[in-house]
Structure formats: structure tokens, C-alpha cells
Amino acid sequence: MLSLEQELRGNAYPGRGIVIGRSADGRYAVTAYFIMGRSVNSRNRVFAVEGEGIRTQAFDPSKLEDPSLIIYAPVRVLGCETIVTNGDQTDTVYEGRQAGLTFEQSLRSREFEPDAPNYTPRISGILSVEKGAFQYALSILKSDGGDPACCLRQTFSYDNPLPGEGHFIHTYQQDGTPLPSFQGEPKKVAVPDDMDAFTDGLWESLNPDNKVSLFVRYIRIEDGSCRTRIINKNR
Hints:
By secondary structure, the protein is mostly beta strands. Helices cover 15% and strands 41% of the residues.
């Protein structure tokens, strides 16, 4: 099991990242989502609460250039399910689940982002907390080694997650030109009981120049109640 903080300190630009897991005491389903940016347009963002989820917004509307890939709802809640993604495929999964499709089926209509030459992967996660049971899944849609002719679709499901364990997936292996897509399975990371320590440790471990915003939620598995923290670099 890896230390999430060490993983982040050793990578100046993992891009956008999703963590899902179970707290060490077994009582909470945990998720985190962060965004980073290298351009002025990407860095000009904040997370804002929208219903039971969140939405990205321009911190300074006058500096907003192209909103197509940076303004979206990263987190939405549908009944006992929490959907977390790095783009507008949050809405795709939400609508698909409403129509009776599985998480994986919902994403069949989507692929990586059209931002050549990076072809940024679309990463997505879904948590289900119902009647004391917890399970989750993660997905990545990416180009085949930078070739947009082929979309690789990988889904990883975790039933009855073990206490203290979570999985971390992010868009880029590291900084670069073009940016290399994430490779391999989601990384197994430790998930503590202390939400504030987890949030602060994650935020402090992100590259100070590139980090933009962080969302963390702890959902009580017994009854579905939750606590949320949001940190924005722009204030």
C-alpha cells in the first residue's frame, strides 16, 4: 500500500485525480477529487457547492477563455450513489444510471478529451453506500499510447472494500509535452479515519504552483450522512 502524500510529492503534475476508499475504522466511505493546472485558463478556477455536489467556476470571469473542458460538475449525487469525474461525463453517468444503465455502460458513449496532443483521459468513479454496504468502481478512458484512433476503456470494481484501503487514479503519469496518460491499475493507498488530516495532508502534498482545488467527502456507511471539505487556492 502506498502513501498518497508521498505519491503526490514525487509527481509535479498528476493532473486531475480521484481517490475512493474506506476509512481505517471501517465506518466511512471516502472520496477525494483534485484539479491542477499549468495554463492561466486552467488555474483560474474554484470548486463551488451545487446541490449535494460541486461545480467548477471561473475565479475571475474576465480571464475565462475556453470553458468547454474546465467548467463542469465533478461531483453529483443520485440516491445512494456519489459520482465523481474529471469532466462533463459526470452528467453522462448520472443520466445513464437514471436510465438503468451500469456505470460502465453509461461511459460507452464517451472517450478521452479532444485536446490534442495530450488526449487527456476521462477518469470517473462511483460510490454506492446503502443499508450499511459500500462498494465502488473507477474507470479510465484513454487513447492508445497517444493515438486517438483507439480508445482504451478500463473499469476497476471494488466490492466490500477493506478498512484503511483506497485506490487512486489520475490523468497523467507525470509532467511532459505531450502529457503522458496514466498507466496501469489504480494505485492502492492508505485511507485514515481523520478527515481533516487526510484533507490537509493531500492538499499540502500537491505541487504548490500547479494545484488549484480539492474536494474531500466522508460518508458514514451506517446511515449515509456525510461531511465535506473544499479547499480552493484562489480565494
